[in-house]
Amino acid sequence: MAASAVVSLYFRNRLETDHLAQLLVLYLAGGMLAWPFVVFAARLVARSAGIETRFAACLVLLATGTVAMTAFLFAMDYRLFYSQWHQPLLTKTGLRQVFGTFASAVYQFAVLGLGLYLPVGLPVLAAVSLWLAKAMR
Question: How many angstroms separate the CA atoms of 106 and 11, rounded?
């Protein structure tokens, strides 16, 4: 996923960004941390099914799991930054602030971050899903 982000950023603005290293770490960590959960879920859901079903399950779970984990890490980074201005976490206001921060971070990731998975991410997603589906026999 980091390679996908690099290619997308290159096509978008020739890698001219102040946060290239942080973006690459975010996308790499999102993919790596999602992998064990996705493999476990795919085996749980579709291990005994046919190859087409295993492929579909792997495709959907890899896509949603990777995006969800990366969005979660992005939201945690937001939380760390804005926590200095928030109320204590276990107060009513603090919980609303955390929820609002997470919601706005996930929205911003959906708008700005999902595009970095294209164009490299889709073929890689299909190839890895096929490989994982075949390996689940």
Answer: 24
Cα distances (Å, whole numbers) of residue 127 to 8, 28, 55, 132: 19, 18, 10, 9
Q: In this predicted model, what pLDDT tens digit does every residue of 29-45 receive, in sequence order?
A: 999 999 999 999 999 99
Using CA of residue 115, residue 121, residue 123, residue 128, what is the dihedral sign?
Answer: negative
Q: What is the pLDDT of residues 91-126, one digit of tens each?
A: 999 999 999 999 999 999 999 999 999 989 999 999
Give residue 82's identity as a one-letter amino acid code: Y
Are 66 and 31 contacting, i.e. CB atoms less than 8 angstroms apart? yes
For 8, 11, 39, 82, 116, the CA distances from 15, given in Å and listed in that order, are 9, 8, 32, 27, 12
DSSP secondary structure code for residue 78 in this structure: H
According to DSSP, residue 49 is labeled S
**Which 3-state string (H, E, C) describes 81-95?**
HHHHHCCCCCCHHHH
* CA–CA distance, 60 with 57 (Å, rounded to integer): 5
| Euclidean distance between CA atoms 46 and 56, whole angstroms | 9
